[in-house]
Amino acid sequence: MRNFLRTWLLPAMLVLAPSVAAVAQGYNWSAVRIGGGGRVTSIKAHPKVQNLFLLPPM
Predict the structure, then answer these.
(1) pTM here?
(2) Biggest alpha carbon distance in the chain?
Protein backbone atom coordinates (compact mmCIF):
# COMPACT_ATOMS: atom_id res chain seq x y z
CA MET A 1 0.00 0.00 0.00
CA ARG A 2 2.76 2.45 0.86
CA ASN A 3 4.49 1.64 -2.39
CA PHE A 4 1.30 2.52 -4.28
CA LEU A 5 1.05 5.82 -2.42
CA ARG A 6 4.66 6.74 -3.20
CA THR A 7 4.64 5.72 -6.85
CA TRP A 8 1.17 6.75 -8.06
CA LEU A 9 -0.95 8.73 -5.67
CA LEU A 10 1.55 11.31 -4.48
CA PRO A 11 2.84 12.20 -7.99
CA ALA A 12 -0.74 12.42 -9.29
CA MET A 13 -1.64 14.82 -6.49
CA LEU A 14 1.39 16.97 -7.22
CA VAL A 15 0.51 17.15 -10.92
CA LEU A 16 -3.18 17.94 -10.36
CA ALA A 17 -2.79 20.43 -7.49
CA PRO A 18 -1.79 23.45 -9.65
CA SER A 19 -4.78 22.97 -11.98
CA VAL A 20 -7.19 22.83 -9.03
CA ALA A 21 -5.68 26.04 -7.61
CA ALA A 22 -6.04 27.80 -10.98
CA VAL A 23 -9.73 26.93 -11.15
CA ALA A 24 -10.32 28.11 -7.59
CA GLN A 25 -8.73 31.50 -8.26
CA GLY A 26 -10.89 32.16 -11.32
CA TYR A 27 -14.24 32.32 -9.51
CA ASN A 28 -15.90 35.73 -9.18
CA TRP A 29 -17.93 36.03 -5.96
CA SER A 30 -20.97 38.26 -6.09
CA ALA A 31 -24.04 39.08 -4.02
CA VAL A 32 -27.13 36.90 -4.22
CA ARG A 33 -30.58 38.44 -4.33
CA ILE A 34 -32.97 36.88 -1.86
CA GLY A 35 -36.59 37.39 -2.79
CA GLY A 36 -39.62 37.16 -0.60
CA GLY A 37 -39.95 39.18 2.52
CA GLY A 38 -42.43 39.30 5.30
CA ARG A 39 -42.12 38.52 8.96
CA VAL A 40 -40.20 35.78 10.70
CA THR A 41 -42.60 34.40 13.25
CA SER A 42 -40.26 31.89 14.88
CA ILE A 43 -36.81 30.36 14.74
CA LYS A 44 -36.36 26.74 15.74
CA ALA A 45 -33.11 24.94 16.50
CA HIS A 46 -32.50 21.57 14.87
CA PRO A 47 -32.69 18.87 17.57
CA LYS A 48 -29.60 16.94 16.39
CA VAL A 49 -27.39 19.35 14.42
CA GLN A 50 -25.58 21.99 16.41
CA ASN A 51 -25.78 25.60 15.08
CA LEU A 52 -28.52 24.77 12.55
CA PHE A 53 -31.63 26.92 12.84
CA LEU A 54 -34.82 26.67 10.85
CA LEU A 55 -37.40 29.26 9.85
CA PRO A 56 -40.63 27.25 9.72
CA PRO A 57 -43.36 28.32 7.31
CA MET A 58 -46.16 30.49 8.63
Answers:
(1) 0.32
(2) 61
pLDDT computed for residue 21 by the predictor: 55
Q: What angle do CA 36, 51, 37 make, to 5 degrees?
A: 10
Q: Residue 4 carries which side chain, given as an amino acid letter?
A: F
Q: Using DSSP bridges, classify how beta strands 53-54 and 44-45 pair: parallel, antiparallel or unpaired.
A: antiparallel
**Dihedral (Cα; 20, 21, 22, 23), 10-degree rounding:** 50
Q: Give per-residue pLDDT as tens, 17-30.
A: 665 555 556 677 78
Query: Contact at 8 Å (CB) between 45 and 56?
Result: no
CB-based contacts of 3: which residues, under 8 Å, 6+ apart?
none
